[in-house]
Design brief:
This protein is of the alpha+beta class. Helix content is 47%, strand content 13%. It has two domains: 4-69, Winged helix-like DNA-binding domain superfamily/Winged helix DNA-binding domain (Arc Repressor Mutant, subunit A), CATH 1.10.10.10; 81-285, no CATH class. The strands form two sheets. It has a six-stranded mixed beta sheet.
């Protein structure tokens, strides 16, 4: 049995982290984001104690730190995010027919229903091993043709393919910031699967490290159920040769902005990774900033 004082402190730490994003949480959401193993009954009991002692607030089933009242903002953003989710499902369904795409997940603000009107939609993709560049080529080509890629003019409702991995590189723990990366741990917990149940299960199994940080971790639900397409099978046979992968790699590297290629070489924080097992393009990476804001908030809880 966990000492209640430990749960008390961990609940405050969870609420402090999400307070950075003005995002109140339900009791279950708090429980799955705790840094200690506990039963849900224990978590709920401590939540009641904290609320009754006016240490935290609750409105409409959402818990948050005073003095802000953020429940209304979350409900407004939920409606925006839900609309974006419906669009994301349709596009993920289309992308699922493209060769070598094994899994599509929704991540970042829309993944945890905290998007605003101007937000884009971020996909996390798993590709067949040795075919990550081919998978990205077809996906980007499709999005570009139909004007679904973010641009300098607008990001609203556009599809961002900023994180792809191959099925032989499922463990993504190596991109966490040294010294702790709370944003990355919570980002992982909110990935919402849209396509590829088999590979979603493999991905979760390959990242058991998450329970070292979030021991009550529960993966998201929300899969599109679809059988494997004969057309996709034919395309994969056509483009199976490694010569295609080499060609598509060369094309994309030639078109890739210079700053991305330089960041992949010069940065040590893994915000940008360009390899045959991972393509991660986060030139603007605010994880360190969020970590510092979070640490400042929890200083008084220690």
């Amino acid at each position: 049995m966990i000492v209640m004082e430990n749960i008390d402190r961990e609940i405050l730490k969870v609420l402090a982290f999400y307070d950075v994003f003005e995002f109140p949480l339900t009791g279950l959401e708090i429980h799955k984001n705790l840094g200690v193993k506990a039963g849900f009954g224990e978590t709920h009991q401590v939540l009641d104690n904290l609320k009754n002692n006016f240490i935290i607030k609750e409105k409409d089933g959402y818990y948050f730190l005073p003095p802000k009242e953020t429940a209304g903002k979350r409900k407004a953003r939920f409606l925006i995010s839900f609309s974006k989710l419906q669009r994301a499902k349709k596009i993920a369904w289309l992308l699922s027919y493209f060769p070598f795409i094994r899994f599509i997940g929704l991540c970042n603000s829309t993944g945890y229903f905290n998007a605003n009107e101007a937000s884009d939609v971020d996909f996390f993709i798993i590709a067949r091993n040795k075919h990550i560049w081919t998978a990205r080529f077809f996906a980007v080509f499709f999005l570009k043709i139909f004007n679904l890629r973010p641009s300098l003019k607008t990001n609203k409702d556009k599809i961002c393919l900023s994180f792809l991995i191959s099925e032989d590189g499922l463990d993504i723990s190596n991109v966490a910031l040294a010294g702790g990366d709370p944003y990355f741990y919570h980002w992982f917990s909110w990935i919402m699967p849209l396509y590829g149940e088999k590979f979603w299960k493999k991905f979760i199994a390959g990242n058991g490290w998450i329970k070292n940080h979030l021991p009550n971790f529960l993966e998201q639900r929300g899969l599109i159920v679809k059988k494997f397409s004969p057309a996709k099978m034919i395309l994969e046979k056509i483009f199976l040769s490694p010569h295609w992968e080499t060609l598509f790699r060369k094309i994309q590297l030639r078109l890739m902005p210079k700053e991305l290629k330089e960041a992949a070489v010069l940065r040590t924080d893994k915000s940008v990774v360009i390899s045959d097992k991972m393509l991660k393009f986060h030139l603007i990476d605010r994880r360190s900033e969020y970590r510092e804001k979070y640490y400042k908030k929890i200083f008084n809880f220690q």
